[in-house]
Amino acid sequence: MRLTCALAAIALAAATTFPVVADAQQAPPAAARYVTNVTAMRSLLNDPAAKPVLARHIPDVVANAGTDQARGMTLKQIQPFSPPSPAKS
Question: How far is CA 26 from CA 2, 10, 12, 33, 76, in A?
Fold first, then answer.
């Protein structure tokens, strides 16, 4: 769940950087920049805009020394190794 939230935050940040278009010229919706089951951690950690988002939402994964071994894996592949999200009250 936390990984999905992190990726959604990255996608939202990327989507908000596009200029506003007048109502008469509606722009098509922006394509997702990153996808949880396609994008490798390498790409996310090397992106200066994505890394702080990951660090905010999944700090233990970003700070873990074993992350170097998982740089070729996607967030979806790493998810089973991540600690469960705390229950929301």
Answer: 32, 23, 18, 20, 33
What dihedral angle (degrees, nearest 10) is formed by the CA atoms of 67, 86, 53, 22?
140
Instruction: Write down the domain spans for the chain.
Output: 2-17+34-81
Using the structure block, give the residue that is written with the tokens 């999944």.
Answer: 58
60-85 pLDDT per residue, tens:
888 887 778 888 999 899 888 776 76
**pTM for the structure as a whole:** 0.57
Residue 66: enclosing H or E segment and its boundaries?
none
Spatial distance between the Cα atoms of 16 and 40, rounded to a whole number of angstroms: 23
The pair of structure tokens assigned to 67 is 């992350």
Write the pLDDT tens digit of every residue in 10-67: 655 555 555 555 555 665 665 668 888 899 999 998 999 999 998 998 888 888 877 7
Q: Tell me which residue has tokens 């905010």.
A: 56
